[in-house]
Design brief:
4-stranded parallel sheet; 6-stranded mixed sheet; 235 residues; 21% strand
Length: 235
């Protein structure tokens, strides 16, 4: 299955796309068809290097499980694995822990592994041209028929808001930075006050990824227009 249902709900006048109800979250909408395409070209293992709190590991794990390929996630070693890593492992991903692994080191080790094994390497945000085109297509389909005044999204890499801008060019877009500088296109950018590894101090009244999307809600409450749309990537 590559066309996942889209669920929305209203909260304080805000239209929320509820991808917390999709195992693996929003990235999986484009990841599953992209991995199917690549598997058809002969790829059998897919690799990502990211932060311990990252939601990409869940999308990768659930998509790989669904289509029957191998998935490997490079991540900094912790005394206790993050709950997202625990869930990803339970879903079938192989976690490779890198001692004292800064993100740049984790990425380097993932790239080296792919060069040695022939596995397919996904960059941060899964930001390949093919994946971005697929995510834009998926978002366009999800937004069809919805009425909203503007959009809000979390910006890790910035890919989500860029795709939303391509899918809905006639409204204003807003993004909230949570870590390193993202590429957000024409979105109005805000900076979350919490450290990247910290959870949101003012989370929304529905399940939302505590280190990521949940940090957007305080800005929505302060700045969003009535009828704004918030794309909630995961639980």
């Amino acid at each position: 299955m590559t066309n996942y249902p889209v669920t929305t709900s209203m909260h304080d006048g805000i239209l929320v796309v509820r991808d917390d109800k999709l195992e693996g979250g929003s990235k999986r909408r484009a990841l599953t068809p992209d991995m199917l395409r690549l598997a058809g070209e002969g790829h059998e293992e897919f690799v990502f290097g990211g932060p311990a709190e990252g939601y990409a590991q869940l999308a990768l794990a659930y998509s790989a499980k669904e289509i029957g390929v191998r998935a490997t996630y490079f991540v900094a070693k912790r005394k206790q694995p993050h709950r997202n890593t625990v869930e990803a492992i339970a879903a079938g991903i192989k976690a490779v822990e890198i001692p004292h692994g800064r993100l740049s080191v984790v990425q380097y080790r993932a790239r080296t592994y792919c060069a040695e094994t022939g596995a397919y390497f996904y960059p941060l945000g899964f930001a390949t041209p093919e994946y971005e085109a697929e995510l834009t297509k998926q978002i366009s389909a999800a937004l069809e028929g919805l009425e909203f005044s503007e959009t809000w999204a979390c910006a890790g890499s910035g890919l989500l808001t860029r795709c939303m801008q391509a899918a809905a060019p006639s409204v204003n877009h807003h993004a909230v930075r949570i870590g390193f500088p993202p590429k957000v296109g024409d979105a109005i950018l805000f900076d979350a006050p919490e450290a990247f590894a910290d959870e949101a101090a003012s989370p929304p009244p529905f399940p939302s990824a505590a280190n990521y999307d949940a940090k957007v809600w305080r800005f929505i409450k302060e700045h969003a227009k009535p009828g704004a749309l918030f794309w909630n990537v995961g639980r």
